[in-house]
Amino acid sequence: MPGFELFGEEEKKQVNEVLETGILMRYGFDGARKGIWKAKELETAITQTFGCKYAQLTSSGTAALTTAMAALSIGVGDEVIMPTFTFVASFEAVLSVGAIPVLVDVDETLTLNPAAVEAAITPATKCVMPVHMCGSMADLDALKEICKKHHLILLEDACQSIGGTYKGKALGTIGDAGTFSFDFVKTITCAEGGVVMTNSESTYEKCDGYTDHGHDHKGVDRGADEHPFLGYNFRISELHAAVGLAQIKKLPQFLAIQRSNHAQLKSILEKVPAVSFRSIPDPSGDSCTFLSWFLPTENITRAVVAEMKAQGILAGNFYWFDNNWHYIRKWYHLKNGVALNALNTAQQVALQKIQSQNFAASDAVMSRCISTSISLLWTPEQIAEKGAKMVAAIEKVLQQQAVHA
Ligand SMILES: *Cc1c(COP(=O)(O)O)cnc(C)c1O
């Protein structure tokens, strides 16, 4: 999964070009920067690589989501439908613009169940935000249809699925807007960074201003810029963008390695009848950052995860053990509405509602799911060894359960 695994001379060279000019900011200083515009160059590379009209870099993936929501006029009182399985950033962004996160069940795609989305629509619903978790995608045709029917915005949180596609289009470029994160553990890293992608010029112009104090970037210099609306500072620095430029050039290589390692591991697990795999709306578009698979019951899964941990194999279970980040079950701060500053009344009411909501359908999926992160550094021998240990762990647990039954 992470681009930091193949980090080296290319990144150093890009960063050094910025250090030599001494201009670390993405705007202004036109003479002193000697033609070096890393953030602009990376934005162009993103539009070309992923096939969208516009790209606005931000300081993080969370900032990208926040920016996209502001640009799409999502704010106080608006409901945003999002999945129970994601990274905390998704609801942080919703709350930070004053909007209301409405959590709905995931299915075996590990992202939004379209029927659950439709059932959650109210007159206050403004946006549906699928999160393409663990490298693969939501059922975008079904979600697009729902959004069209109910006049809703489709915002893709594609932070974890850089390089994935759906029916030939890059994830993150299919909705009204989409975001990537370039944090340290993502497929491409800038150390910290993110991007909003869109095909709408007006949405892009809003993102451009919002991330830089509302500047319209049309003055002869920064001081002469107008401020047509309020903004914040979600800018990326030239140093971060420089790292991203080196990384995006390696994306085809990252994806090829991920796909090959994923296929090798999958071919080993496939031989175990008790194992089933995540359902993927367009299998050819899986970016293969993770191999996500299921065991028949919660108990078996729990025992296999424990056995794999004992063997030193990363198990990636989001339901129990030490993961407090990705699944609603352990988002106590969200469910209890614990914030440093006041949430608005509609948000408080909504969070109280989440406390008593039943997510049995999500639990039934997530408690049986193991997501194995695919490393770029594995050798074929290491994958064979890992796969054999995983199979042995599953077989040991199944035998024990058969004895007890
Ligand atoms: C990483 C991530 C984000 C945001 O990431 P930052 O760490 O703020 O760059 C948002 N959503 C998902 C699903 C993520 O995995």
From TrEMBL:
Pfam families: DegT_DnrJ_EryC1
InterPro entries, per database record: DegT/StrS_aminotransferase, PyrdxlP-dep_Trfase, PyrdxlP-dep_Trfase_major, PyrdxlP-dep_Trfase_small
Keywords, ordered alphabetically: Pyridoxal phosphate
GO BP of this protein: polysaccharide biosynthetic process
Transmembrane segments: none
Name this polypeptide is given: 8-amino-3,8-dideoxy-alpha-D-manno-octulosonate transaminase
SUPFAM superfamilies given in the database record: PLP-dependent transferases
Family indicated by similarity: Belongs to the DegT/DnrJ/EryC1 family.
Keyword set includes Transferase: no
Gene3D superfamilies for this protein: Aspartate Aminotransferase, domain 1 (3.90.1150.10), Type I PLP-dependent aspartate aminotransferase-like (Major domain) (3.40.640.10)
Record-linked CDD domains: AHBA_syn
GO MF: pyridoxal phosphate binding; transaminase activity
Signal sequence, start to end: none
